[in-house]
């Protein structure tokens, strides 16, 4: 009955506007049309503002983190052997060895990555049998669901995180669940939202809901702000938790090769007051990358990554803690090999005799 | 609120799923990558760090 009705309507609409795209709605939507019109007008007005996408909350400090070397420093000796087996879809395996570190025991890790346009699969296993897993599924250009887990033979070391990202034209929305338990709903739940308000300013908030046991629950909200310069050459961010934690960062691209970043972490709670400032610089040269960093706890560190050929890189890292009088040194190699011929990788064939 | 028995069953199912993922995740990636790769690599090149 209903289908016959709607096809009849379509025929009428088609006779009025034969070339227009199909915009007919079932007739029971008509009472809602003022709201639809209002929504359409609102979204049109919003689109006319032309606000840029603010980036995601997770990547708020991405530029600073990639300039500073806190996430890249290592000590002892390290070797990473990466082998690309296919370029499209991407499939590569990695063997990583680490020895002689002061802080971590020697380890071997095998990793595999598979990725195509919509799916990203990553897995790693170390010599103790601990597995870490990542799985991203892109449903559309706006929606991405991410799954991340760690499995261990020791109880209490397992972790599961399920996450969904929605990317709008001028905002980003993210929801996360860490170790959710379906029986008593314990776990950590995080929701975050970041919205562009002008061409430069984006504001957002992040709420963390913790429920370690069924009768204990705790919510904390932090506020975020991001200022991006017109030419995107510098970015300032701030993250404030009302309990008294402030993190402020500043990043600037001084030239094509040089980026500098500063980071201030402030703890001003009634029981504890603390602050750490970190300053860092990164030089990107043609075959090398050099990072240097100094912080207010007395640590000076540097990392050099020298690429001798596109497939072979040598890393040297060092850190001196002046207040504790200790030092760390690390050397590493990264070797990339491929079973593919240059033509299969999409490179132009190399002429012989060079 | 689910009953104790249902809760126990869910916990058991989660535990089994976790064990399957723990031992099956890496083989799954290797299988997916090996079958979808273009061109298909040989197995020895896949596992050996030197070949």
The total beta strand count of chain A reads 19
Count helical runs of chain B.
2
CATH architecture of the largest domain in chain A: Beta Barrel
* Fraction of residues in β-strands of chain B: under 5%
Termini separation of chain A comes to 76 Å
| Quaternary organization | heterodimer
Name of the level-1 CATH class of the largest domain in chain A:
Mainly Beta
Rg over alpha carbons of chain B: 18 Å
Keywords (chain B): Membrane, Mitochondrion, Mitochondrion outer membrane, Protein transport, Transmembrane, Transmembrane helix, Transport
Protein name (chain B): Tom7-domain-containing protein
Subcellular location (chain B): Mitochondrion outer membrane
GO cellular component, one term (chain B): mitochondrial outer membrane translocase complex
Notes on the structure:
- The complex is a heterodimer of chains A (354) and B (51).
- The relative contact order of chain A is 0.12.
- Chain A has two domains: 2-16 and 23-49, no CATH class; 63-338, Porin (Beta Barrel), CATH 2.40.160.
- Mean pLDDT of chain A is 86; it is low at 1-20.
- Chain A has helices at residues 2-16, 33-49, 62-67, and strands at residues 76-86, 90-99, 107-115, 119-126, 131-138, 143-151, 159-167, 171-178, 187-196, 201-213, 216-228, 234-241, 245-253, 258-268, 273-284, 288-295, 299-309, 312-321, 326-338.
- Chain A has a 19-stranded mixed beta barrel.
- Chain A contains three helices and 19 strands.
- Chain A is mainly beta and 354 residues long.
- Chain B has 51 residues and is an all-alpha fold.
- Chain B has one domain (4-47).
- Chain B has helices at 4-36, 43-47.
- Chain B is rod-shaped and about 55 Å long.
- The chains are: A mainly beta (354), B mainly alpha (51).
- Chains A and B meet through strand 1, strand 2, strand 3 and strand 4 of A and helix 1 and helix 2 of B.
